[in-house]
């Protein structure tokens, strides 16, 4: 079955950087786009970034555009979310999504 496993979250100071990873299995990775979502405490789930199957096309949510970069390594069945200039408002659980399946999430906390 489809499995998505996120990692790389943690506590970081404002202005810092983190890179999240999502390792996928159970489907042909190169056939599907991958999405990153986040959900802050008491908030709805927000689409952060999306990447096409080949990686040629990407799109970002307005609040992260210019600060976050999504990429993928199709040889490793892995998608990445590089986050820079992090702000307290970026604090959330971050989820990888594909084929209507979700990972367990990885927590990102931005605080001094």
How much of the sequence is in beta strands? over 45%
Element string (H = helix, E = strand) = EEEEEEEEEEE
Largest sheet: 7 strands, mixed
- Anisotropy-based shape: globular
Specify the structural class.
mainly beta
> Mean of the pLDDT scores?
97
Poorly predicted regions = none
Q: What is the β-strand count? A: 11
The total of helices stands at 0
Helix content: under 10%
CA-atom Rg in angstroms: 13 Å
End-to-end CA span:
40 Å
Please summarize what this structure is:
The protein is an all-beta fold and 112 residues long. It is built from no helices and eleven strands.
Write a structural description:
It is a single chain. This protein is mainly β and 112 residues long. Helix content is 0%, strand content 52%. The chain has strands at residues 3-7, 10-12, 18-25, 34-39, 45-51, 58-60, 68-73, 78-83, 92-98, 101-102, 106-110. The strands form two sheets. Strands 2, 4, 5, 6, 9, 10 and 11 form a seven-stranded mixed β-sheet that branches. Strands 1-3-8-7 form a four-stranded antiparallel β-sheet, with no helix packed on it. Strand 9 (92-98) and strand 10 form a beta hairpin. It is globular and about 40 Å long.
